[in-house]
Amino acid sequence: MEQSVDNTDIDMTTMQKMVLSFALCLVAFMFVLDYTIANVAVPYIAGGLGVSSSQGTYVITFFSVGNAIFLPMTSWLVKIYGDSKVVIWATILFTFFSFTCAAAPNLYVLVVSRFLQGAAAGPLLPLSQGILTKLFRTKVQKISTIFSMIIMIAPVIGPVIGGYICINYLWRWIFYINIPVGAISVVLMLLNIKGLKSKTEKVGFDWFTFMLLLVGMTCLQLFLDKGQQWDWWLSDRVWVLSLIALLSICYILIWSFSYEKPLFQLYLFKKRLFALSCILIFFAYSLYFAIVVVFPLWLEDVMGYTAYKAGLAVAPMGVGALMGAAIVGKNISKFRPIYFIMIGMFIMSLACFYAANFPPGVSFYHIAMSRVVLGFGLAFWMIPVISMVSNSLDDSELPSGLGIFHFLRALSGGIGTAVYVTMYQRRGIHQWQNIAYTFNDYRISDRVYQKEIAALIPDATSAKYYLGEVVSSQATTFGFVEINNLMAYVCLALMLLCLFAVKKPKKKEESTTK
User: Fold this and answer.
1) Cβ(393)–Cβ(257) under 8 Å?
2) pLDDT of 195-229, one tens digit each?
3) CB neighbours of 187 closer than 8 A, spacing ≥ 6?
4) Distance from C-alpha of 485 to C-alpha of 183, rounded to nearest angstrom
5) pTM
6) CA 402: distance to chain centroid?
7) 82: left (phi over 0), alpha (psi -120 to 50) or beta
8) How far is residue 453's CA from residue 465's CA, in Å, rounded to a whole number?
9) How far apart are CA 77 and CA 263, in angstroms?
10) Do 104 and 365 form a contact (C-beta atoms < 8 A)?
11) Main-chain dihedrals φ then ψ at residue 197, nearest 5 degrees
């Protein structure tokens, strides 16, 4: 394992460290929660501002764009101002733009505020993790366990809180609740962070990479969020956006290898543990985020759950994650992290197979239990990955390395959601065609079924509508089954991929001289 070097002066009492850690965890939780809490609020936001739901989705899109652009800038900001100043000002600006989001009089102001809110939040997650790692360098495994819980649980309870607020109060309160949390965090940090000192230096700003990020990430996020609505590759807009995004990424990679001090410190990928952590978080987190999105969609489409009830059904994932974290946190120092990751992938595959074999009219209990199993497996792979990336970086490399790591994590969430949700919807349409084409009046069983419906629903129009709903429900369920089976096989593939990361111990050369 790569050795870490401490380049930071820390003059703090144990109590100051604990209070500062609480403030940093609170900030990280607030950001990750805000990432998903707005998802269920889109219809309410659209209705409240008098716009369509498709226009309302820009509230989510531009928050992701702002966050993706400013995440890689974490390292540059820390070099100029120091990590303590950056994390405090990022929290202040995030809180301020939460207020402007809540008070927005129209969609345009809201979208701009969300973009700026996402930009302000860019350094929050990597810096929170980085500072916690510096404070407790000898207890990285325990810190990684706590930090992983934030990343795992916040996206799960976000839709629950968002749905509850929108149903019982006004959608603006999903942003107003950030204000007291942000204020408390800022006060606690100001009172306790003075003992944390880091070296600063004057460095030039990589404007070329920044402009490419601005253009490329905007095009990529629009391409991912609007692709299904624009019919993907049948749309000229999708082709243009995807080509611009691809060219921007290619130019960023070329520039990062040739420029002396680029925003992306790609030399960090020479570190084996860092490279492995980035690969795993990209593929595994895209799968996790897709599960968090697809599963509630099926509950609402087929089972008739409201957004709030669907959130409650998914929430037990947090219970499973707590159970898994207790086991992993206690034993991660005794075994190699890669073994926990493989176990986690296998457990997640079992949870996906479990969901793929739900019986018709599955009870809330079985739905909740499948999420508990999923959360249990989630803790087994996420905690070791977070621990690995922290251990692989020196203190001076933490802002840059964690900025790249969380940039890939955020990017993978958008890609995974776009890919799996599109496949879920497309497979549902395909199965609807298969079922509808085989249904005809010349088959005895079909005529008997129609007579049974007619006996229950005398009105012919209502009977046909009911039949269409049954076909649509069955087709969507078939699509859900296929996607869960696919997710299970992806988990197993990632588990097998981990085998290549297991280093064989070098055999000691036996002396042949006598």
Assistant:
1) no
2) 677 777 777 788 888 898 889 988 988 888 888 88
3) none
4) 45
5) 0.82
6) 15
7) left
8) 11
9) 10
10) no
11) -120, 135
